[in-house]
Amino acid sequence: MQTIENADALRRQVSAWRRAGERIGFVPTMGNLHAGHYSLIEIARKHCRRVVASVFVNPTQFGPNEDYSRYPRTLARDQEGLAAAGCDLLFAPDVATMYPFGVAQPVTVHVPVVTEPLEGTFRPGHFAGVATVVAKLFNLVQPDLAVFGRKDYQQLLTIRRLVTDLALPIEIVAGDTLRETNGLAMSSRNQYLSPAERETAALIHQTLLRMRNRVLAGDAVEAIESDASADLVAAGFRPDYAAIRRADDLAPAGGRREGLVGLIAARLGTTRLIDNLPFVRPD
Ligand code: PAF
Question: Which of 16, 68, 78, 230 could form a disulfide with 62 if both were Cys (CB 3.0 to 4.6 A apart)?
Fold first, then answer.
């Protein structure tokens, strides 16, 4: 696997593959990779002859009091893991390559509606940062297909809307969330957790399962949401939300009982965790 930091060199390599008629898959990441990311590389591999990954800790998607500076940078280990997972090219640009005019006033991509509730309320500007950097990465890599994890459910909807509304010729494929044996969704941020917090953090998934079972049993959505928040508080979390929304656009459930998703964001100690669960009947 080759690692490229320079945009022109990236374009040269990708164009050569394209001229050879090879389909190109892309997995954007912020590094500090784990099995969840490698499963996205494998999905890209199944669909495409060539797989490009990017590692770029994107400053514009972090709020002023978020973990941009302490976000773990582990490029050497990421390179090994990506090569083993079958990635052909790692694009690892610096901030000046991605933001030639600086990060204070970049051209910004604003995706409406799906970015507004939930994470949009608690992390103002986050999805503008995500949509902007993903649009730039798409323009640099020019993939046929890109893979995003379902773990960041609202991000996945945001990217789908970006691609459809801007008519980008890129197929978006979703990868399932990988979980630890206790149910905790894999995330780079899990490494901020102490061993005891890691056990407690499993309650987020358990809470989502309870929310799903109660929705399927016909309980009132508002009662389920407030009980879920109360359960999280009782376990030591500070929840931002425990919400039941329409899976396609994150609008309130209204009278709907089908096509819903449960989403939780909660702080445990200094770590903010998010997870979600589509409410389909278990097989
Ligand atoms: O999901 C992530 O790791 C990031 O939000 C992404 C899509 C790489 C954009 O920086």
Answer: 68
CA terminus-to-terminus distance, the chain: 40
CA of 218 to the centre of ligand 1 (A): 36
Tens of pLDDT, residue by residue over 185-244, are: 999 999 999 999 999 999 999 999 999 999 999 999 999 999 999 999 999 999 999 999
Instruction: Identify the DSSP state of 97.
Output: H
What are the residue numbers of the active site?
37
| Chain centre distance of CA 5 | 23
Q: What is the pLDDT of residues 110-138, one digit of tens each?
A: 999 999 999 999 999 999 999 999 999 99
Nearest CA to ligand 1 atom 5: 130
Ligand 1 atom closest to residue 28's alpha carbon, by position in its atom list? 8
Distance 29 CA to ligand 1 centre (A): 5
Contacts of 166 (CB under 8 A, 6+ apart): 135
Token pair 């780079």: residue: 188
Please indicate whether residue 134, judged by its CB atom, sits closer than 6 Å to ligand 1.
yes
